[in-house]
Amino acid sequence: MVKIERYRKNIGTLTKEENEKLSSFRICVVGCGGLGGYIIEMLARLGIGHITAVDSDVFEESNLNRQLLSNTETLGKHKALIAKDRIRLVNNQVELTPVVERISDSNAESILKGHDVIIDAVDSIDARFVLQNVASKLDIPFVHGAIAGWYGQISTILPGDNTLAKIYPDRCKEGLEKEIGNPSFTPAMVASVQIAEVIKILFKKGGLLRNKLLYVDLLEHDYITVDLH
Amino acid sequence: MSIEVRLFATLREGRDKKIYVDYEEGLNGNAIVEKLNIPKDEVAIFLVNGRDLALDKELKENDVISIFPPVGGG
Question: CA of B12: which chain A residue's CA is closest?
Fold first, then answer.
């Protein structure tokens, strides 16, 4: 039974029927760091019924500047397990399954199957290609997001699309973030756009960033939608 | 005649946001990137007139190029 008062402010943006339906969806969030922390928080507050949170890492001091699930008491603890603790506090109607594993070709299919949408919150280009390939094989929409410094990008990849090949050609082995780091504000923004994409996929409404990349530059305020057809 | 090159994010550091390169026959994306001294692994998305194009394809007069570096953090 969905508690109506908790979700009163969802209504209007979502219909009552859509809001009721949120609890039936299963979303897989791969990565529980900068993007993942905000993504998991927003999914739980919205009222998504089941979240799978995947991350093999533990929190380190250098995560504290941006990763919502990190604090001085969670240092050294597994990010995915802390996600479960956090969501119990935020919304105990949401079921969160932590998976303390690094996504790879060998485990991706078993972790990702059975979800309605897969969300990219990983920090490696190689891992993103694993997610795109397996999501396509499993016929599951995949919402890409990435951050570096003042910059971020988002794209929605539906089964059969090979959007990542256009975003990360072979000549690019790693991103700008290795040089310019990640501050607190960029992941929050990119995560928000990813969640909006997820909701639109789930309810088949609005315009998706399919075959498009939203490129965000918070330094110069360039918000450009690149056509990747 | 020239080709307009629009640079994004960190590619603007030490360069202008918008650069004009003189057109010459046979000019392609690889040559543009070399002229601007941009390492190849910093060229993630290369658009010509708003569409994705391989670096070895020949360019035309008055083409407008946009170059975005790779963003990969999470």
Answer: A220
